[in-house]
Write a structure and sequence with these properties.
Layout: H1 2-19, H2 41-54, H3 58-62, H4 64-72, E1 76-78, H5 85-88, H6 100-118, H7 129-153, H8 168-171, H9 184-204, H10 208-211, H11 221-234, H12 238-248, E2 284-288, H13 317-321, E3 332-334, H14 336-343, H15 354-359, E4 377-378, E5 381-382, E6 398-399, E7 424-428, H16 429-444, H17 448-460, H18 474-490, H19 496-502, H20 509-518, E8 520-521, H21 526-530, E9 549-550, H22 566-571, H23 579-582, H24 587-592
Antiparallel strand pairs: 1-3, 2-7, 3-6, 4-5, 8-9
Length: 604
C-alpha cells in the first residue's frame, strides 16, 4: 500500500512538472541507446565486433553479396537456371528483391561504422592507441562497404555522418551529385570517400607484424593498403597504386615490408581450407571469419535483424557451389573455358596445374593414388574415370571446388545453409603481385619487374617463367595477366566482375565477344550422353556459335552494375536509378576519362 501511494504521488508530481513545462528525464540504466552507449573503449570495441559481424551477412559476404560478383564473371555460369539467373544473364530487372539484399546489408554495416566514427572524431593523434585501432577498423569496414556498393550499384547514397540519421534529409540521402545525369559523378564521389577511408585507416592501424595475434581476423594497415590499391586501380590510377603495392611487398619482391611480412603459401590449397593452421595465414591480407563447422550453432541467420544466440556463423558459399548429388544447391558452375585454360599449360614437371584441383571438382587420371592431397575425391567419395560429377543433375556443369569441402575430406556431403566454416580470403598476396605487374605494365610496358612478379605466382604453381619474347608489348602482357594468370589464380572467387568493369570489357565489341566465348556452355545430362544424343562432355571446349547458351549473350547495356531496387527508389524520393535502371551505356564515361581498353590480340 505504501509503494502504491508513493507511485501515485510520483505520477502526480510528474504530471504537475509537465504542466509547468519542466521535464524530468529519467534514463533506464538497463536500456542502452545511441546516446548512452559508446562512450568508452570497451563499448566501442563491442561496436567494432558488430561491424565485423555485419560483413558476414547474407547480403555482404555470407552468400548473395559474394556470389553476385562471381556470377558477373566469365569463369562461372548459373547451372540452376533459377537462382542467380538474372545476375548471370546481366539483365536483372529493377523489381528483383534479391538484388536489394546487398544494398540493405552494407548500409546496416555503414550505420554501425558511422556510429563508431561519431565517437572517435577529431584529431586522431590525440586518441589512445586502442581508440586509434577502433577508428581505423571502422574506417576500413566503411571503405569496404562503399567499395562494394559502388562496384555493384554504381551510384549509392553516400552517408558518412551518424547524425544524418536523425533527420529525414539524412535518412533519405541523395545518390546523385549536383548536375549528375548518369550516376557516374556520384560513382566518383563515393570512390573518393573510399580512398579517403582506406588512406586514414592505413595510418591508424598496426601492421600485420605489429598486430600479432590481435591482427588475426582484423583489418590491419596492410589490408587497408591492399584495398586502397584496388580502389585506385578501379579508376586507372596505376602509378599511385603501384607505389602502395610496392610498400606491401616483401623485400624479396622489391618492397620494404612497411605493412608486415606477406608471402605465398607453398601449397595453394591452404588458402581454401578451414582450421587455424590454414586461415589467417602468411598470404592473407584480409579474410572474412567464419567458425569451423562443428563449432557453430544451428540457426541460419539470413538477415541483420536475426539475433539468435545459436547462430551458425558460417557461410552458404558451399551450398551454392556444391553438386546436387552431394546435397548442394547446385547453383553455380565453373565455365568450360576456365577448365580448358588450366589444361592448356603443364607444370615444369609435366603435371596439371595444381590450382585446377582446388578450383574445379573434376576427375583427372593423374590424381589417382593421392597425387594431389586426397586424390580423386568428391567429398569423401572416390571418383573414377567413368564418373561425371556435375553441379546440377538436369543442366550439368563443372562443380566449383574452391571454398568448399569437396577436396578437404572432412565431410561426406554438403551441409546446406550457413554452415561452411572456410574463411573467405578477400585479398591474398598473389593479388598484390599480379596487380603490381599490371600497374607496372600500364605505366612502363613489359619490364623485368612485371615479369618477376608474375613469375613469382606462376612458380608457386610449378609453372615455368613466362617467355618474355612472346609478351613484348603492353597489350600482349595485359592479355596474359587479365585472361590467363588472374583467372587461373583467382578462378571462381569474388572480384572478377569488378575487374571486367574497370578494364572496360563491356564497352568494346571485341572484348564483349570474348566474354561471350568465355561464358559459353552446353547443358549436359548423363542419360542423354549415354543414349548417344550427343558426344561432348562437360569438360570439352565449347563453340560459342553453337552452344546451349552464353550468359553474356543476354547482356543489357548498363547492367554490368546491378539496378537499384525499385521499391528502394519508391521509398526514398532523393534516390535516382543508375545505368542498370535506365539500361544506358557507360562507354562514354569510360572514354571521357581517357582510360585504355586493350584490344583483343589478333592471335587470341
Amino acid at each position: 500500500m505504501k509503494l502504491y501511494k508513493l507511485s501515485l504521488a510520483l505520477i502526480l508530481g510528474l504530471g504537475m512538472l509537465t504542466s509547468c513545462n519542466d521535464k524530468l528525464d529519467i534514463s533506464n540504466p538497463n536500456q542502452q541507446t545511441s546516446e548512452t552507449f559508446g562512450n568508452n573503449v570497451d563499448e566501442l570495441e563491442e561496436c567494432v565486433i558488430a561491424a565485423y559481424n555485419h560483413i558476414r551477412m547474407e547480403g555482404t559476404y555470407a552468400r548473395v553479396g559474394y556470389n553476385l560478383d562471381v556470377t558477373r564473371g566469365d569463369e562461372v555460369w548459373n547451372a540452376s537456371q533459377v537462382w542467380y539467373l538474372p545476375f548471370d544473364d546481366l539483365n536483372d530487372p529493377v523489381t528483383d528483391e534479391i538484388n536489394q539484399w546487398s544494398w540493405r546489408d552494407w548500409y546496416y554495416t555503414i550505420n554501425v561504422c558511422n556510429f563508431i566514427l561519431s565517437h572517435t572524431s577529431g584529431d586522431s593523434s590525440s586518441l589512445s592507441t586502442k581508440m586509434q585501432h577502433i577508428k581505423g577498423q571502422a574506417l576500413f569496414i566503411r571503405g569496404l562497404a562503399y567499395y562494394n556498393l559502388a562496384g555493384y550499384y554504381q551510384n549509392p547514397a553516400l552517408i558518412t555522418d551518424y547524425a544524418q540519421y536523425g533527420t529525414l534529409d539524412g535518412l533519405y540521402a541523395s545518390n546523385h551529385a549536383d548536375g549528375d545525369a548518369d550516376g557516374n559523378a556520384q560513382y566518383d564521389r563515393v570512390l573518393d570517400q573510399v580512398e579517403a577511408d582506406f588512406t586514414e585507416a592505413m595510418s591508424l592501424l598496426p601492421s600485420k607484424t605489429e598486430g600479432g595475434e590481435w591482427a588475426k581476423g582484423r583489418a590491419t594497415a596492410g589490408a587497408a593498403a591492399g584495398f586502397y590499391a584496388r580502389t585506385l586501380m578501379a579508376r586507372h590510377k596505376y602509378a599511385e597504386a603501384l607505389t602502395v603495392l610496392k610498400d606491401i611487398m616483401s623485400t624479396a619482391d622489391g618492397g620494404n615490408e612497411k605493412y608486415g611480412t606477406y608471402k605465398l603459401m607453398a601449397n595453394y590449397g591452404d588458402n581454401f581450407r578451414e582450421g587455424s593452421e590454414y586461415e589467417n595465414n602468411d598470404e592473407s591480407l584480409f579474410e572474412i571469419q567464419f567458425l569451423d563447422y562443428g563449432t557453430q550453432g544451428v540457426d541460419d541467420e539470413w538477415t541483420p535483424v536475426n539475433t539468435s544466440p545459436n547462430a551458425t556463423q558460417g557461410s552458404a558459399i558451399e551450398s551454392n557451389y556444391g553438386p546436387g548429388a552431394f546435397g548442394g544447391w547446385a547453383d553455380l558452375s565453373a565455365s568450360p573455358w576456365l577448365y580448358n585454360l588450366f589444361k592448356a599449360e603443364r607444370t615444369t614437371g609435366g603435371s596439371l596445374d595444381p590450382r585446377l584441383y582446388w578450383t574445379i571438382g573434376t576427375y583427372e587420371p593423374e590424381w589417382d593414388g593421392n597425387a594431389m592431397t586426397l586424390g580423386n575425391v568428391c567429398y569423401t567419395t572416390t571418383m573414377t574415370a567413368t564418373d561425371f560429377v556435375v553441379t546440377n543433375n538436369d543442366n550439368g556443369g563443372l562443380p566449383i571446388a574452391k571454398n568448399t569441402n569437396l577436396r578437404t575430406g572432412l565431410y561426406d556431403k554438403v551441409v546446406t545453409g550457413l554452415h561452411d566454416g572456410i574463411n573467405l580470403r578477400l585479398m591474398r598476396y598473389s593479388d598484390v603481385l599480379l596487380r603490381a605487374a599490371e600497374c607496372e605494365n600500364e605505366i612502363n610496358g613489359p619490364t623485368a619487374d612485371a615479369f618477376k612478379w608474375i613469375d613469382k605466382v606462376r612458380n608457386r604453381a610449378q609453372l615455368a617463367n613466362l617467355d618474355q619474347s612472346k609478351f613484348n608489348t603492353k597489350d600482349l602482357l595485359f592479355e596474359q595477366i587479365a585472361n590467363v594468370e588472374r583467372p587461373k589464380e583467382f578462378g571462381c572467387e569474388f572480384g572478377r566482375g569488378f575487374d571486367l568493369i574497370r578494364w572496360g570489357f563491356f564497352y568494346a565489341g571485341d572484348r564483349l565477344d570474348q566474354l561471350k566465348a568465355h561464358g559459353a556452355f552446353n547443358v549436359w545430362k548423363k542419360a542423354d550422353f549415354d543414349a548417344g544424343k550427343y558426344t561432348y562432355t562437360p569438360k570439352d571446349p565449347v563453340d560459342p556459335s553453337s552452344c546451349s547458351k552464353s550468359s553474356f549473350n543476354s547482356y543489357v547495356q548498363g547492367h554490368e552494375f546491378l539496378p537499384i531496387y525499385q521499391n528502394t527508389l519508391n521509398d526514398n524520393p532523393n534516390l535516382t536509378g543508375n545505368s542498370a535502371n535506365k539500361s544506358t551505356s557507360n562507354a562514354s564515361y569510360f572514354s571521357s576519362k581517357g582510360w585504355t581498353i586493350h584490344q583483343v590480340p589478333t592471335n587470341n
